[in-house]
Amino acid sequence: MPRTALRVRRWAAIAVLGGLLAGCGTGEADTGGPAAAPANGAGARTSTEVRPIEAATRITDAKGVTVSLPKPPEKIVCLVALCDDILVELGMTPTATNSQVLAHPKFLGEEKAAEIPVVPGGFLSPEVEAILSHRPDLVIGLEDTHGKLAPALKGATTFWPVQPGSWQDSVGYLRDLAALTGRTEQGEKAEKAFRTRLARAEESRSDATALIVYGSDENFGVATPETDVAAGLFPKISQYPWKSRGVDGSYSLEEILARDVDVLFVETLSFGAPDGKLSDKLAKNPLWSRIPAVRNGKVIEVDSEVWAKGRGTRSLGVVLDEATAALR
Description:
By secondary structure, this protein is of the alpha/beta class. It contains 13 helices and ten strands. The chain has helices spanning 3-12, 81-89, 110-113, 128-132, 143-146, 150-153, 167-181, 184-203, 253-258, 278-282, 292-295, 304-307, 313-327; strands spanning 58-60, 66-68, 76-78, 96-97, 138-142, 158-162, 210-215, 221-222, 263-268, 299-302. A four-stranded parallel sheet has the order 4-3-5-6. Strands 8-7-9-10 form a four-stranded mixed sheet. A hairpin with a 5-residue loop joins strand 7 (210-215) and strand 8. Helix 2 (81-89) packs across helix 7 (167-181) and helix 8 (184-203) runs parallel beside helix 13 (313-327). It is globular. The chain starts with a helix and ends with a helix.
C-alpha cells in the first residue's frame, strides 16, 4: 500500500480500542464490540436500551477529553466526517466542513451539501485562518491529525479532538454533542435507531464470510475490527476472520483466496481526480477471478466517504443496511 493511502486509511480507521464508555453524556457500554468479540464470533447481542441524555455545558468524553462551553454551540466547524455525521443526526448542519460525506443521499444530498462552505487545505492541513473566519463556537477534529491546530485555535474558539475506535465510541460522541447542543431528544432517537438496526442485523447474522478491502490502486489493505469502526460491526453480522497485522502488514490475494470469501466489499480511495474502481484494478490479477465472491457476482463497491470516513451512527447505519442486504 502506498504511503499516502496508508496515511489516509490510518485516519479513516484509526486503531484506538476503547474500554467502557464513561463520563458525562456517554452511552452505556456493550459487550461484543471489536475489543471483545472474537473475529469469527457473534459476541453478545447489542442492547437497544438508551439512557436519557441530559443537556450540559461541560462534558468529559470516553477518551477523557473535557469540553466546556458558555452556552450551547450553534456554529460548529467539522474537520472530521464523524462531526458532520453527528450534526445531521441531531438535525443540524456544520458551519463549514472539509468532508464529502454530506453529499450522500442519506445525509444532505449533493445540492444541499454544496451550500456548506468547505475549509481549504484538505483533511490533513485545514487552514486555521479559514476556520476562524467562520467565528465558530466549536471546532471538532481528529486528535492525531488535527491536534496540532489546538495552539492556533486557543483563545479564539473551543477545539474538541475526537478519536473513535469503535461504534461504542461513536455513540458516546453522539451523546456528548447532543448534551452540549441541548438536542437531547434527537440524540436519544438517533442512538435508539442505530442500536435497533444493529440488534436486528445480529438476529439475522449470516454464515457467509465477508471481507472489506480498501485502496487506490492494485495494492490494497484489509479493514479489520481492531483498526476500522465499520469493520468492527462485521463479526456481529457475518463470518469475518480478519485480524490486524499492524500499519505495515496486510493480506495477500493468496490468503484471501484460501478463506473462501463469499461477499467482498471494496472501498476505492480517491486522491484528487477519480482514476477508476479498485475492484477493476484488482481484476487484472489472475487470482482475483478465483475468489468465490468474484465468481458469484458478490463484489460490492461501496462509498468510502461513508464506509471508511463517516464512523458516526448515520454512516454505520448505512453500512449495516448495505452489508446485510448483500449478505443475504
